[in-house]
Write a structure and sequence with these properties.
The chain has about 200 residues and is an alpha+beta fold. Helix content is about 45%, strand content about 10%.
């Protein structure tokens, strides 16, 4: 199992910032994170949208350098381009002086989009009765907690997060689905609380 975490591309340049400012384009990138090339048609089918509504956004992601054109395939009489993500994961720069308002705004927009998508997925799971809240095959779990962590504990948390992401990526790299496979979404946020006193509970 990969415990070193995914290969990550850090967002750089105004074109890439604009590209991921859209919740729709963030969702599109999510389909490419499985590591397999996809065509616009295949992405559109997975999203339940017409290809004409997706083509512009895939092209913009490619022009910005977040997707690479990795080949072509024949679809009937037509040839269609295949695209792959530039890395296994995309990340917003996570540090820098507070004066870097552009980076901070981008991080906030990206996080807000990710959690809006999580809310949408949660509503669908609850409405369709697909949420399993207990057992070893639990697929629905939501929590939010504040805690105090030492540097050693923070390092351990980050190792476990990398192991978790590695396990997810390992499953996504599998070429063939298994009989008990199901699609799930995983949304994580580890956020410092600078205004919380360490001495408070």
């Amino acid at each position: 199992m990969n415990t070193n975490g995914p290969k990550v591309h850090i967002i750089e340049g105004e074109a890439q910032r604009r590209a991921i400012s859209s919740p729709l384009r963030l969702e599109i990138l999510g389909y490419f994170s499985a590591g397999r090339p996809l065509s616009v048609r295949e992405v559109a089918e997975r999203m339940g949208r017409p290809a004409t509504a997706i083509h512009y956004h895939v092209r913009l992601l490619a022009q910005s350098g977040l997707l690479n054109k990795s080949g072509e395939r024949r679809d009937g009489r037509r040839r269609e381009a295949e695209y792959s993500m530039v890395a296994e994961a995309i990340a917003v720069p996570g540090h820098g002086p507070p004066s870097e308002e552009g980076e901070n705004t981008l991080a906030l927009k990206t996080t807000a989009s990710a959690f809006r998508m999580a809310e949408r997925d949660m509503k669908a799971a609850l409405a369709e009765g697909a949420a399993r809240r207990e057992g070893e095959d639990r697929n629905f779990y939501v929590t939010r907690m504040h805690c105090r962590l030492s540097r050693e504990e923070m390092a351990e948390i980050n190792q476990r997060l990398n192991a978790l992401l590695g396990a997810v990526l390992d499953s996504m790299r599998r070429e063939e689905p298994r009989d008990d496979d199901e699609f799930v979404s995983l949304t994580l946020a580890l956020i410092p609380l600078p205004n919380r006193s360490v001495g408070s509970s």
